[in-house]
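Q: My labmate handed me this sequence with no annotations at all. I'd like to see what the chain might look like in three dimensions before we decide whether it's worth expressing. Could you predict it?
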Amino acid sequence: MDQQCRLGLSGLGAWARRAYLPNLALMDDVRLAAVSTRTDDNRAAAAEWLGPDTAVLRDWRELLARPDLDGVIVATAPESHCEIAAEALARGLPVLCEKPLALTLEECDRLLEAERKSPAFLQVGLEFRHAPVLCQAKKWVEEGRLGHVTQAWCRIFRDKRDSPRRQPERWVGNGGVFVEFLCHYFDMLTALSGGAPERVSGVAGQKLGTGAWDHGWLNIEYDNGALGHIGYSLLCPREAERLELGVAGDRAVLEIVLSQGRLVL
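A: Here is what I predict for the chain of 265 residues:
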């Protein structure tokens, strides 16, 4: 009996090739049954990379119509996420959708409703939440080591001074800085706060003149009374790049060093 999970992958852009293909190849209990991609070059390359056991298709509709799939990964351009993921859920297929989930609130609501009506689940590819050190930090928070959580914070300093000009689709399109880039940090703070975000406020600016919001400060209010703070800058020299992450309670403060996999209580 075949115990492998048979997956379909829609989209073969840079992230799918860099992250999904090599990691799926490491999993003995997963088989990539089919991929779909719009471009001739990607299909030719995929046929060479993946071999004869993986069907290479032109259209995502062909992919979802296959009877042999146990789940689908949606790694296409963000504007197509909603249509593909909604159709997969309607067919009863579990979906891992690359972030951002969608580009409008209406599309997000449509997908949530599609999941409610489906026997399958929908998950967004926010992988930082599953980093072992963050899982351990969340466990300590849930165990009450910090007491009642009052604040969670993240400060990101990155050298992206040229990137908005070279990759405007990431920093201005596709949801821009807030939806495409900062979603990871919103998600980590939500996991650490233990609450659901109710309000977001902040300030941001465009010092580079590229159309991207290249620096700013955001505040998040959660339904359990905790506060979240995200400060970010894309203007930092490369040698000074850093990510600071932490959570405070009424008994202790926890610093999370993601790059080293280390917690300091």
